[in-house]
Amino acid sequence: MTAPPAPAPAGLTTGALGRRLGVSPTTIRSWERRYGIGPAHRDPGRHRRWEPADVAVLEEMCRLMARGVTPAEAARVALAGAGSTLPTARTGTASGGNTLRVGTVRPECRGLARAAVRLDAPEMALILRRNVDEFGPVTAWTEVMTPALRAVGRKWATEGERYVEVEHLLSWHVSAALRRAAEQVRPQTGPAALLAGMPTELHSLALEALAAALAERGLPFRMFGAALPPDALLEAVRRTGPPAVLLWSQATGTADRALVERVVSTAWGPQGARTRPVVLVAGPGWAGSRRPPGTLRPRDLTTALHQLEGLLR
Known about the structure:
alpha/beta, five-stranded parallel sheet, two-stranded antiparallel sheet, disordered N terminus
């Protein structure tokens, strides 16, 4: 008579748990050694098996860390359960191993960086939404989003393509949070600013942050996004008659001075009452080069916002 098959081992292996949480098995084992977060069951041969209750503790630890709580404090609170006191997250530095070196930043930025490395999309979305709602688009962009984006850019530049997936996922969620903020407020009617990336410029997150900040103030704008072709840019200016045009360039190779001069000279309206836009050239691509004549050169998001606000009021 054939013996019945042995029951499948319960729980997750450390490798499967790592894939679920978005952290390496080595990190999980180090947490077990340092903080006493371990599985309740081990297979013969000392293989770890993580039961649902064990998994819930680690998931809670990861959620707390994503909010800027240190691993030690997060482990203490997760092990203590719902009745424990949540520690206040402190501003500090995240570095080393599978973390992003964000420097001295808000705890919310540390949490965002940790969630990004784990590819924890729901946690990233939650952190970004809360930050935009609480701090506003300008502070969320400059103090939370930008340091995290720069950190992941530095990471994949030194690690090869290993962290490109982190940058892509983080960028998508940053864009989603900013677009949500831009769509929440109906802007005032009237002439709208035109926002666009230079024809070969593929980056648009800074433009999306500016759009969200303009929407927060009720200021009208038209967002054309990245890589607007030259003829399309000039036609958009002629068709919409914007009082202000902001053109973004992330790198010097995309900063087309000749095209900007054409935008500056573009006019509309009846003969004798022709109108031209005020053109702002923004972004690192314009650094170190002489500003095209007849343009403004805002140095940061706040300056661009103030200049546009003055032109649109």
